Amino acid sequence: MRILATDLDGTLIPLDGSASNFADLVTLAEQLSANNIRIVFVTGRHFSSVQSAIDEHRLPAPDWIICDVGTTILQQQSGHDFIKSDSYSDHLATITLGMTVADLHSRLKVVDQLRVQEAEKQGPFKLSYYAKAEQLGELCAEIEQLLVEWAAPYSLIHSVDPFNGDGLVDFLPRGVSKAYALNWWSREANLAHHEIVYAGDSGNDLAAFVAGYKTIVVGNADRSLCKRVREFHQNEDWSDRLVLANATATSGVLEGCRKFGLLDP
Q: What is the pLDDT of residues 126-165, one digit of tens each?
């Protein structure tokens, strides 16, 4: 089995105004199907947002979706329906034993700067808030200290929404991330790392970039991120697991898949 695991925003989804990205998305979808490549979406989006992206951008249908920043795994069933992995949910429950996200939310009411996100952006193992972007660093340092004091089995991830500049704060089971979920899924599927090509563009893809998978860093990624990934692969003596694509987003994914021999040149 050969797998393309890919981030969505900034990676598989064409960049606004890029005619080459849109054209290459059609080519990529056709060649993935022709070569019988299975697809995994690995994204911070929630499930309904992933479905909207598939329809809006005419993305190739994934076989699995890892969403909610690595806290939900779904597999496609017949008729394009998706079913959530109960075994992964059970696994996450062992990490958060003793403190649910509802318990954590109740404790976090002491932090006035947090504004809870919409209901559809929450999950049984994901608690998400908005905050002022300019306060994120200091605020999250304070919250991390609270997590230690509470012995809370959660990690904090913060970022800035590239579309509207909102500060985003996500609480996930301790140690869980997109890469954590992909690693768990690959073990359950009995897949070796060399069978998986991972494509991404940003810092929240870093853990997957350095997990041992064949890696595509698309051309619109930050140059400092590219340098970190290249140096890590060099230090591990991985000479055949990295493509720093010249092309951006969708076109970079296509470029990398061809260089890895996943698709026809």
A: 999 999 999 899 999 999 999 999 999 999 988 888 778 8
Residues 115 and 240 in one domain: no
* The pLDDT of residue 240: 93
Where the chain has pLDDT below 50, the residues are none
Distance, CA of 151 to chain centre: 26
Enumerate the H helices of the chain as residue ranges. Answer: 19-34, 47-57, 86-95, 101-107, 136-150, 178-188, 206-209, 223-235, 249-259
Q: Decide if 29 contacts 263 (C-beta within 8 A).
A: no
Whether 57 and 119 map to the same domain: the answer is no
Burial class, 228, CB count within 10 angstroms (exposed 0-12 / middle 13-18 / buried 19+): middle
pTM beyond 0.85:
yes
Tokens representing 153 are 């089995």
Q: How many CA atoms lie within 13 A of 111 on its CB side?
A: 26
Q: Please, what sign has the CA dihedral across residues 46, 52, 56, 57?
A: positive
Predicted local distance difference test score (pLDDT) of residue 79: 67
Number of independent structural domains in the chain:
2
Distinct helix (H) and strand (E) counts, the chain:
9, 12
* Cα-only R_g, the chain: 18
Whether 265 is covered by a domain: the verdict is: no
- What is the greatest pairwise CA distance in the chain? 56
Q: What is the pLDDT of residue 104?
A: 98
Is 193 a domain residue? yes
Cα 7 to chain centroid distance, Å, stands at 5
d(Cα 9, Cα 49) in Å, to the nearest integer?
Answer: 11
